[in-house]
TrEMBL record, chains A, B, C:
Species, as recorded: Ascidiaceihabitans donghaensis
Descriptive protein name: Porin
Alphabetical list of Pfam families matching this protein: Porin_4 (PF13609)
Gene for this chain: opmA
Domain of life: Bacteria
Residues covered by the Porin domain: 7-309
Signal peptide extent: 1-20
InterPro entries attached to this UniProt entry: Gram_neg_porin_domain (IPR033900), Porin_dom_sf (IPR023614)
Alphabetical keyword list: Signal
Region of interest (Disordered), ranges: 74-98
Amino acid sequence: MKKVLFATTALVATAGVAAADVTFGGYGRFGILYVDTAAGDSTDITSRFRLQIDATAESDAGVTFGARVRIQQDNDGSADGTTTGGVGVDADGDGDNDFRGRQETGINGVRFFARSGGLEVGVGNIFGALEFMPGMYPIDLGLTGHSYDYTAYNFRGDAYDSDTGGAAGLNGVEVMYSAGDFSMHVSASDVNDRLAAHFAYTFSGWTVALGLQDSDAAGDTEWAVSVGGSVGIADLSFAYAKNGDDNNIVGAGGNGDHWVLAARFDVGAATNIEAYVADADYFAETSYGVDFNHDLGGGTSLRGGISSTGQDVTLVDLGVRFNF
Amino acid sequence: MKKVLFATTALVATAGVAAADVTFGGYGRFGILYVDTAAGDSTDITSRFRLQIDATAESDAGVTFGARVRIQQDNDGSADGTTTGGVGVDADGDGDNDFRGRQETGINGVRFFARSGGLEVGVGNIFGALEFMPGMYPIDLGLTGHSYDYTAYNFRGDAYDSDTGGAAGLNGVEVMYSAGDFSMHVSASDVNDRLAAHFAYTFSGWTVALGLQDSDAAGDTEWAVSVGGSVGIADLSFAYAKNGDDNNIVGAGGNGDHWVLAARFDVGAATNIEAYVADADYFAETSYGVDFNHDLGGGTSLRGGISSTGQDVTLVDLGVRFNF
Amino acid sequence: MKKVLFATTALVATAGVAAADVTFGGYGRFGILYVDTAAGDSTDITSRFRLQIDATAESDAGVTFGARVRIQQDNDGSADGTTTGGVGVDADGDGDNDFRGRQETGINGVRFFARSGGLEVGVGNIFGALEFMPGMYPIDLGLTGHSYDYTAYNFRGDAYDSDTGGAAGLNGVEVMYSAGDFSMHVSASDVNDRLAAHFAYTFSGWTVALGLQDSDAAGDTEWAVSVGGSVGIADLSFAYAKNGDDNNIVGAGGNGDHWVLAARFDVGAATNIEAYVADADYFAETSYGVDFNHDLGGGTSLRGGISSTGQDVTLVDLGVRFNF
């Protein structure tokens, strides 16, 4: 038996780290979700398991080529839709879909990339320039994220999809570039022939971002702006998106103006509180919510939140998240 | 190159061990299965591949949060059923389904848990209090398990499902507790509004267990008892379950009384022999079987068994299992 | 904290290596594919992600038991076919299937094996004696492999299937044996009751192989021969297959004679060029193509090729492949 000493780069025995050039990480979360709509209320268990697989190789010239896929299972009731064969299952016959079926359980669409220095080219299930624009996810409310009313572009652009094919088969392409305090991101796909970009600049702790999109669809986002920074113990963020012309339909669609004001406050060493208020032309009422995240150490945390959505739905969740 | 010494807890280079806090393990088995029914007999290859993924994180207070999922593929002929989209495939046109299709191949329903000391709370695709009651799996017959007639509660309660969603979307919850020689397990789910519990106590090498269940379904298990222990080279086990009232249907259902007597004998250093006899109100005849398991070392074993089931089917299997 | 030194066999920090006895490896590739048919031409992104899982255990007597599965996702437009539930998705409504749907994303059929010295027995999703005959894959054209017109047996025999069940449920069995310069491979399955074998012998750097098959299907391969070796900087290969009697249908089927001449030339230290010419009774015209593979180091390479297929389709591809 020959004894050897490993180099420090060889293997690191912490969570989310590589077996060779394939790394496995992710998170699990579980807890309780209360939903109160005009049709009635329900309290159910909510859970998600996400295993993320990152595979990479680096050329002699220092270019990293890689792929990211996820194996994810949510227990929520909504089906994936017929195009991917997803059918919700009402296993206990109470009128709700209890389980999305097996369609959730394989890998999702693959994002391939080539990266060198501050430049990255992505292909397939792309991140999307508007989805990745600073200020679009100013907070992550509660355990489950709630209604994402605080995401101003309202998913009216390309985005990485964790549990279906996403843009993988749709010729999605993107270029990301950063240099010092400046960053930009251009993405394009066959979906509505979208071409989108964002530009962001950070100065004195504040980040200003501008997003633009050209699309064949009237309801897609046209432009967006965001400003975010820190004031004392608070992180503040404002975002606005012009999601096409207002279609004058309240309670449906997502067209017209959409603005979001959000904040995060550190409360003690291990706890923060997040809050938002948002409104949009298609909202029935102003949307708002507040949450807390309490760090339990070791990648685990206790999380909960309450919100009143733009569609007048009340959501309350509480549970545990663990990263691995 | 900086040289380091790893701590012993860092990485252990044996089977089934972690890449960080995500561990991959499982087993494969393959061999021959002979089935003789009133309709005729067949001899086919049987195989299973199971990759089990356990992901965990531990909070500073010592609570372990985690999730267990499996990626499993059996080659048996039965389809998963239409609710999950599974369709068996008769690829060679001989009238039997040869392959369950792709539905087998994703991850199954997730079991989430929080564990601290002797207490564990499970959520989702739960283990189930009757399924995990001592004495319900006194033996594991042959290569494939055969008819599981030796499982007295007859699957008339919640159980972890390795190849479909299981209770994942069904608000399954359970609490497991052990202290010294005593253990208990309470589980509940939306399926038939089941509430089940078992209590077990071990003294002088013998384990006595009692199971109870309240359910909306007439055929579900009402109560069960088991006793198991060792006498010389033999492990003996007796179990009885009251699976609802006898419906007087022979050859179908699973209602009424069900009892099982089972034994395991060590024969030499690397071989054991298992045998059982069981009967139930719905059996057409008494069920019995015998098997052998021969350890080949390194996690591999040769296994085979023969049984005559309660439905008058003869099963013979022989093959290899390897754990990884 | 106890410090230890690892044995060299413990863990090796390079790509494709084990987390214990389960190893994860594979490759990704992405680039551009141009297709020109009589009906028109198209240029699209092409991509594949393959994660290969090899699980093994070794008995005390030195027999290795194991299983191989793959999780693979292609973005090509063809559906898997209705038998496995695969449905192509035309997400952008341009008349092409953009995405195979979720059916691609689970594990494929499992190949189980037992191996000792030069002897290996395989069960399930078998490799196949004709598929693994030397000379059947003399080259791997471009990024995507193009039409595989250079595979003389034309897939008219059993083969390992990376993205569906393959022969897993079909009682596929095979035996592979090698001793010095001689190797042989016998495979059998329920598909068309195929029984196939190949025998190969290597002398002075040249490999000669003979394949034989008995099958219930008129169009299956009857016999095949191949010769391959090196002359200076070139690797040359010739293969011929008798794929049943010529059915006199041009542009369809795959019956009759099929021959292939292929070569690989090293051009500089990191680049090679491959070329082939092939013809078959069912080809509308002679098929030919040429490619290059340029090694970028670290398991990455730049690849591209152009071919004119036997069905008068022009294919051009260019892109990157990375092994992990």
